[in-house]
Amino acid sequence: PLALGLYTVNAVYGDTITMPCRLEVPDGLMFGKWKYEMPNGSPVFIAFRSSTKKNVQYDDVPDYKDRLSLSENYTLSIKNARISDEKRFVCMLVTEDDVSEEPTIVKVFKQPSQPEILHQADFLETEKLQMLGECVARDSYPEGNVTWYRNGRVLQPVEEVVVINFQKIVDKSTGLFTMTSSLQYVPTKEDANAKFSCIVTYYGPSGQKTIQSEAVVFDVHYPTEKVTIQVLPQSTIKEGDNVTLKCSGNGNPPPREFLFHVPGETEGIRSSDTYIMTDVRRNATGEYKCSLTDKSMMDSTTLTVHYLDLQLTPSGEVTKQIGEALPVSCTISSSRNATVFWIKDNTRMQTSPSFSSLQYQDAGNYICETTLQEVEGLKKRKTLKLIVEGKPQIKMTKKTNTNKMSKTIICHVEGFPKPAVQWTVTGSGSIINKAKETKYVNGKFSSKIVIAPEENVTLTCIAENQLERTVTSLNVSAISIPEYDEPEDRNDDNSEKVNDQAKLIVGIVVGLLLAALVAGVVYWLYVKKSKTASKHVDKDLGNIEENKKLEENNHKSET
């Protein structure tokens, strides 16, 4: 913000004033200083920071003792802002060759206290100029203005009818203003229930604001000319409320007793100025009258007791089977057009529920709620807790994992109450305890296991709830044989690709078997031929061995 072309800082009384030094730090900076200017223009230095030694010094100025803080970027902070801080402050950056200065204007604002109407008149007399009271707002800065209101409308000065005097007093120790506005007024009988208040207008850092006093009603003395009946509370009435009929005369002092004429009663009921009805019902709707005891003056009013009825069919807790139909109706009877809406599980529905074929996601807590918007607090609601049961339904899928080292078997389960799931291996009957389950949502969840079978196995998924026990089995090949379960939404091209892959694998296996068969036949022929040739060799070798043994025996005999 700028004031007279200068940078201005707006501060709240008692808060901290923060003033940045709006100069670029020059090369060769020796030190920075802050000062403020006296009314006569003379400077008063208050803070010093060296750029080389990084030390901060604060001048001995009593008004700013223990209130200053100078940061490394030469931003000056002043704690506990006072009115006396409204000055022109100057940031100085000093080099060996130059001194740069940048001024900042500080403005301080203080919100006044809530205005009060003091020295109120005990009563007012018609046709006579009287002092109503004084509106006082304290501790404001800068000073504010006071405006008087009658029943929410501004009271403009009128000679010898509305006389307003304003004065302000400043506290020399704090500099804060106290504003006082007195109101002299000539009342009329219409002022019997008039509400007088005052508003103080003041300025804050963000602009003009106002604070209003509590309203005051004065006792006006004048003769009774008219009787008035009033229904309290003045808001709309609903069944169960307590209603007060208040009868008053427009004179003062007012009459002490009245006759209240109530529907269904042939004679007036003698009472003070009020007639109370508790826990009213819709049959209390009608015309009510009051009069002076001599029936010389009378007034009437119509009382309407609003009501709202709601019928929900069915309601409470209802259990149905999946696929069944359930008609639901919410019937309203009211004194005015009512707004009806549905809530399911704390979420407002766009349309009314209709169930031609119940599904698990239809289960939940339903609320039919209706309100009369014109009648505060008049609303009704009824609940329907819908339970959709169903026998367990199972679908099993399988696939070889990408690492080719394991297979994933999934058991997709539907049913309510939530089925318990067990896995078994056909033959051994052992329970597989390493299954993982997904979250149970809308009657559906899945149980998944990961296995690495060395041979073909059959897995069985068992789902059981209070309604039925369902069993489904799935054959799973050994880990060496890949398997794929295609999702239902796969297109035909992908299916053909998978079939082509399967055909390729089968072709490779058949080719390998044929190659092995040919190699076996060749090897068999080779072995047969080799055995025939080796028989002759064995005979020759046998003769040589016999001769060697005979020579050894002869040598032993000689020895």
TrEMBL record:
Listed SMART domains: IG, IGv
Keywords of this entry: Adaptive immunity, Cell adhesion, Cell membrane, Cell projection, Disulfide bond, Glycoprotein, Immunity, Immunoglobulin domain, Membrane, Repeat, Transmembrane, Transmembrane helix
Gene3D superfamilies found in the cross-reference section: Immunoglobulins
Gene symbol of the encoding locus: Alcam
The protein, known as: CD166 antigen
GO CC aspect terms: axon; dendrite; plasma membrane
Pfam families assigned to the protein according to its UniProt record, in alphabetical order: C2-set_2, Ig_2, Ig_3
The Ig-like domain, residue ranges: 103-212, 223-304, 323-385, 392-472
Source species of the chain: Nyctibius bracteatus
GO biological process: adaptive immune response; cell adhesion
Family annotation (InterPro entries): CD80_C2-set (IPR013162), Ig-like_dom (IPR007110), Ig-like_dom_sf (IPR036179), Ig-like_fold (IPR013783), Ig_sub (IPR003599), Ig_V-set (IPR013106), Surface_Rcpt/Adhesion_Mol (IPR051116)
PROSITE patterns: IG_LIKE (PS50835)
Subcellular locations according to the entry: Cell membrane; Cell projection, Axon; Cell projection, Dendrite
Membrane topology: Single-pass type I membrane protein
